[in-house]
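Here comes my example:
=====
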Amino acid sequence: MASPSKVLIVGGGGIGVIAALSLETNAQANVTIVLRSNYNTVVEKGYDIKSCDHGELKGWRPAQVINHVPDVSTRETPFDYIVIATKNVPSNNDSMADTISPAVTPEITTLVLIQNGLNVEMPYLARFPQNVILSGVSYAGSQEVQHGTIIHGSHDSLEIGAFRNWNIPNAQQMAVAKHFVSLYAASGKASCRFAPHVQHDRWKKLVYNATINPLCAITGLDSGSLRRAGPFVSKLLEDAMAEIISVAAAAGHIFSKELSQELLDLDPKEDRFEPSMLQDVKKLTWNKGNYIEYEYLVGEPLREGIRMNISMPTISVLYALCEAIQSKNNAKSLRIAF
């Protein structure tokens, strides 16, 4: 029997913990997780998890819990995979690509980015040109409601594809992606699909994440309340979604005209679902120190539109308002936690 894959997960919030749980459940992966703000709680008590896929677990921990990125020069064997499950938010510290560099073995370690937004892979490609980079689009609804407490309410569904690296044979990148998919899905608890056109999936998720997500953060409304707010808000949403779909099409990703309504229907008007950016705004209000990840969710699609001379007036306004929120947040907190 092959030895378990050695996996380092950076980011121990809702998504990172469920990823660790899915990988370790099948005994084919040995997971080390890097924590910061919740480190002491998890070391002392473990995670309390209520999961729609895994059930209720008390005091769960992966194989190793640490509070720093390890230096592989001190290890006998390198990490096979490093999974980045942090949010893309501003920090006073080095970029995440620089942060993880001590744990990366050139040509051996595969980087797996389970993060929202567009062009999230570029800093890693620039920093690690000889390593395979996998792009992950997650649809798991999971959050850490307080240190060490995870509520996972919607099925762990993950799409994985290789981010094209011209320094590495394409067949090798595809094989690595398929192997990670098999590791993640082996327990039968999670759905993990090989997505050869994963950037198409990123753009599709952006039709929601660049529109409803920031609007909920700006207004303080959950998704159901936002949709019930009246015809002018509905028109604003429609216009914003149409702008994202237009830029996606110019980038070669064509979506049906029904996509906007399909995505809206994922959050019924009766629900009180709080998208990630609204959760982070509320945490700032509670002095927990979270910024909103608007640059890769709203800013990058906007910059793509500008580059292609496509007018995006609605997205431009959303971006400006998110910038204002971030400016206010910056005055409240200078510390970012994993």
Remarks:
- DSSP finds 13 helices and twelve strands in the chain.
- The chain has two domains: 5-196, 201-332.
- Residues 231-250 form the longest helix (20 residues).
- The radius of gyration is 19 Å.
